[in-house]
Amino acid sequence: MINFKNKKTLIWDWNGTLLNDLEISIRSMNQMLEKRGYPLLTVDKYLSIFTFPVQEYYKKAGVDFDYYDWDSVAMEFISNYRQNVVDAKLHTDAENTLHFFKRKDMDQYILSAMQQAFLEETVSKVGIHGLFKKVVGLNNHYAATKEDVARNLIDEIEIAPNDICMIGDTIHDFEVAESVSINCILIAHGHQSFDRLKETGAMVINDFTELRQLF
């Protein structure tokens, strides 16, 4: 059994973990699907097919890349998402939980598959940027993988992997944590279902109340 009470540093995923953007992510995709005459996604369908790299998710949503160009489709989704994300708020109890860990004097970081400037913009808009030592995203909008930036962040932090825990909402967050040999907790209130997350073998919880109890 992992003793999370000994952890000194948290690396948070952003989308789905802290930012409740499930509905606006589905809306942004459905705008693109409807434009092309594809069936729209339901919440259950989305939770069952969302994955990284996101191009695979697009394929599962029905997008035919023999007919549509990946770059144009990806940028159209980002354009839709940018317009819709103004409606997204933090998950209930997220800010309280961040302050809980701040009171414990734990260092907190964000590691996201969102493009860096856009990530900083969305974090700043909800007023919590100052709670993190660093906010780290990708250098593009294609959300392929976070593993390389995770390695760079771990090297920069210079803290033993055993002292770090990653908190995310997707299988990819678990894979990223595994790639840098840190523990991971997955919260099933984001972009993938509880059952899918449980298949990783990671600790899976339902909300921030359960998370705080672990620490």
Report on this model:
With 215 residues, this protein is an alpha/beta fold. Helices cover 44% and strands 16% of the residues. The protein has helices at 22-35, 43-49, 54-60, 70-84, 94-103, 116-125, 147-157, 171-179, 194-198, 208-214, and strands spanning 9-12, 19-20, 89-90, 107-115, 134-138, 164-168, 183-187, 203-205. The radius of gyration is 17 Å and the shape is globular.
> What characterizes the major β-sheet?
6 strands, parallel
CATH class type of the largest domain: Alpha Beta
Helix content: 40-55%
Query: What value does the average pLDDT take?
Result: 94
- Which architecture of the largest domain does the CATH hierarchy give at level 2? 3-Layer(aba) Sandwich
Question: What is the structure about, briefly put?
Answer:
This protein has 215 residues and is an alpha/beta fold. It is 44% helix and 16% strand. It contains 10 helices and 8 strands.
